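[Automated response] Your request has been received and processed.

Submitted sequence:
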Amino acid sequence: MNCIIIEDQPPAQRILKKFVEDIGTLHLKGVFSDAIEAMEFLKSNSVDLMFLDIHLPKISGIDFLKSMPNPPHVILTTAFSDYALESYEFNVVDYLLKPFSFQRFVKAVAKIPVKSTSNTADYTESGIQENRKEIFIKSGYEHIKITIEDIIYIKSDTDYTEIITAEKKYLSSEPLRFWEEQLSQNHFFRIHKSFIINTSKIEKIIGNQVYLTRAIKVPIGRAFKENFMKSLLN
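Generated structure:
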């Protein structure tokens, strides 16, 4: 999903850029200090999402929105809550009140409606089949296809889950319980309240620690250890 940042404060620009990079499914096309610069860019470029500050020089974020006949999805970022009610008249996706956390940022992006495709429709109707080779991960606006065998582990982190592969980290709005149910037939096992691992990636187990490929170490929860060890030995 292509996005731009319209923000006049350099510290806020840096935070948003870092969050966009970390979420994985967003592609930053530009950072603008005022709405006039962004307007010129949008005359010849299309984007899916704007992170828009309300208090901007020259033209406010609200006035900028009013001037756009067909704006992309908009997530407002501001230090003031005064405009929250007015902003929703423009069908904004979310209203982020500064300072906001990465978890809150992910939650806002996850609210963007997902365009349905034939692949995602099949996925929704049939679910994950036993020994399926690929899976679609819902991450914000997109459904991303990855190879199941490439997943090393999945971690729960408050409002989202992290799917870790050797090459990349993906963020999903689905809870850990969802992945536990969907991947149970593909050599995945929940070993902690916050972790599911791909058992084919195990290199050794020492005490209450599982050592996975690429020198990754994951704890075994006390409540999960007995069933986990039985599953390995059977």
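Summary generated for your ticket: The radius of gyration is 21 Å. Residues 128 and 183 are 7 Å apart (CA to CA).
If you did not submit this request, please reply to this message.
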